[in-house]
Each structure stands twice: as C-alpha cells, then as structure tokens.
Design brief:
CATH architecture: 3-Layer(aba) Sandwich
CATH topology: Chemotaxis protein chec
Largest sheet: 7 strands, antiparallel
Shape: globular
Radius of gyration: 15 Å
Helix content: 25-40%
CATH superfamily: CheC-like
Order of helices and strands: HEEEHHEEEE
Number of domains: 1
C-alpha cells in the first residue's frame, strides 16, 4: 500500500526535485486552505486509484510561473490549469510505475476545487498529505477501492 510518507516523497520529488519548488509538510489540521482549483487523474487496470491535487489559487499560479519561467501575473488561466494537470500527471505516472500488472492513466482533469465535496471512499482507502510551498497551500490525496493492490 502507498502510505503517507511515500505519497509525500513522490510529491516532493516532483515539486522540489524536478521543478525546484521546495515544499514543506503541513500537519496542522487547523490550518485551513482556501482551495480554488483541483486536478485529478485516474489510474485504472489491475490497480484502481484516483489521485487528486487540491490547491490554493496562489499555489497553482506559483507552480505555473515556475514551469513556464514567467511572471505569475502574466499567466493565462489555461497555463495555470496545465501546470496543475502536469504535476498530478507526473506523480500519477510514478505511482503507476509502482503498481503490479497492467495499469493506465487517464488524462488529467483540472477545474474548480472539489475539496469540500463529500467523499464516499472508505477512510482506510485514502492517503492524504498536506503541504505548503512558500506559504501557498495544497493537499495531495490518493483514493483507491483496492489499496492493497498498490505496493508498499
């Protein structure tokens, strides 16, 4: 099973290792973020999972500015959405590579945050990490109906 530390490591590798965006864990449940955007991607096949990134608008803009090497105020909405989709795609690709058997990735879906929507996935099938990047908050969530098929 992919646990919290593993999901954090994959997120950190994508943010800091690939993009040069240092992130810090945020374990304080009282620290509420104003999530504006979400990016989701589905892993299907022999392992089934949904990876979701919920972010503050400022995190998404900061991420896009880094990816596009541009000033954050010069970015278009589609560039910001593309950056969030690409980040979740990178992390899901790494998770897919850890899965046994044959698995496939969907295209990322980016839009208004769904972080406040009720989640019917049993709690034991959800792994979630929260973090910040220069004060900009995000949550990465992996939900699966068959978490036991995912590697440790």
């Amino acid at each position: 099973m992919i646990d919290g530390p593993t999901l954090w490591q994959l997120t950190e590798q994508a943010c800091d290792g690939m993009l040069g965006l240092p992130i810090a864990p945020c374990d304080d449940a009282r620290n509420s973020f104003d999530f504006a955007l979400s990016a989701q991607i589905k892993i299907s096949g022999d392992a089934e999972a949904l990876l979701s990134l919920h972010s503050e608008a400022s995190f998404a803009r900061h991420l896009a500015a880094t990816m596009y090497m541009a000033e954050s105020n010069a970015l278009e909405e589609d560039e910001i959405n593309d950056a969030l989709g690409e980040l979740v795609n990178i992390i899901a690709g790494n998770i897919k590579g850890m899965c046994p058997g044959e698995t496939f990735l969907s295209l990322p879906c980016v839009g208004q945050s769904l972080a406040d929507e009720p989640d019917t996935t049993p709690a034991e099938n959800i792994v979630e990490v929260r973090g910040t990047c220069e004060g900009h908050g995000f949550t990465m969530r992996l939900a699966s109906s068959i978490m036991s098929a995912l590697p440790a």
